[in-house]
Amino acid sequence: MTKHLFATIVTATAIAANNRGEGDGSTLSTLQKITRGNDQYTTVSAEAIRWGLREYLQNHCKSETNRTFDPDVDRYSFKNEQFSAEEYIDDDLFGYMDAKKGKDNEDATTKRRGALEVSRAISLDPYWGDVAFGSKGGEKGKTSIHSTEVHCTAYQYTIALTPESLKKPERAALALDAISAVRHVGGNHARFLYDFRPESIVIRVTDDPSPWIMDVFKRIGESVGCPRLVRLVEVGDVAASELIVAGEIADTPYGKQLEALGVKVYRGVKEAIAAAKELLSMEVTA
Predict the structure, then answer these.
(1) Cα gap 90→281, rounded to integer Å
(2) Which residues are within 8 A (CB) of 224 and not within 5 positions of it... i.e. 6 or more apart?
(3) Mapping DSSP to helix (H, G, I), strand (E, B) and coil, where does residue 34 land?
(4) Per-residue pLDDT, 250
(5) What is the C-alpha radius of gyration for the chain, rounded to an integer number of angstroms?
């Protein structure tokens, strides 16, 4: 039976400004937003999250990473622009596309769909239009002042991966390691640091090809809760044995409820990632 890995992550709450303006020299940096009901929420693209995952792979498995980023010249470089999912971890996880035409104008595009799917991250809190101002040093001019939209919030996103879709299924464990250590997600980080690591996480290893656990976290007071996840386990749509839950959610009444229902609950995210890697290893090689 094919095994699937899903995880929904909620980050820590901090001041975010994770998008650029019209360019690096722009004096206005705006956040991407979506409307849900009567409120606006800020969002971080899946591409930006993948950027963060690539950064982890570049720092920890550089010899096996095809595309790497040089911050000194603000430029990517490739070891092999022909790509190789067998040879490179990032080509295997994220896929690639080299769009081109052949000599007779036939489609000669080389592409591979990424095995690791990543959703957009959506803020847990509505956005009310907060803006911060800054100024460059030295002599002031018309463009000295810059403004940046900021949002004090946490973000929630989901990943999906079928290890058998990878050329090397054991690379699924590397994806889990990267998720637990995302630092940058692209955007306006020259001025703002935003920690994108998991504060709480739910991991599901299952035969079910549908995640079911997307968007299960929500803001409740000053904390974060997961009443939808509790309900999914209670009604049997998601088996408790398929879940690993960890982080600050473990110390809430929802964590206690899930533990009572038979879910593996860990207070530490790193401990949970280690347990998920072990479970994945047993399930995928079984």
Answers:
(1) 20
(2) 10, 124, 154, 199, 200, 217, 218, 248, 249, 252
(3) strand
(4) 97
(5) 21
Amino acid symbol at 159: I
Which of 126, 119, 118, 120 is closest to 36 using CA atoms?
Answer: 126
Amino acid at the residue 175: A
* Structure-token match 């004090």, residue found: 152
Q: Cα-flanking dihedrals φ and ψ of residue 181, to 5°? A: -135, 20
pLDDT for the residue 81: 85
Enter the tokens of residue 274: 């280690």
Closest CA to 280 of 240, 242, 238, 245: 242
Helix residue ranges per DSSP H, 171-268: 171-179, 227-234, 253-260
Q: How confident is the model over 52-81, as pLDDT tens digits?
A: 999 999 999 999 999 998 888 878 899 988
Buried b (16+ CB within 10 A) or exposed e, 4-24: bbbbbbbbebbebbbbbbeee
Looking at the predicted structure, is the pLDDT value of residue 44 above 70?
A: yes
pLDDT in tens, 234-253: 999 999 999 999 999 999 99
Alpha carbon distances (Å) from 170 to 33, 52, 55, 167, 281: 36, 20, 19, 9, 7
Tens digits of residue pLDDT in 107-150: 778 889 999 999 999 999 999 999 888 777 777 777 777 788 88
Find how far residue 96's CA is from the centre of its chain: 18
Beta strands, E only, the chain: 4-11, 14-16, 28-29, 32-36, 39-44, 67-70, 75-78, 95-98, 110-113, 117-118, 121-126, 131-135, 145-149, 151-153, 155-161, 198-206, 218-220, 223-225, 243-247, 264-266
Q: Which of 192, 144, 143, 180 is nearest to 31 (CA)?
A: 192
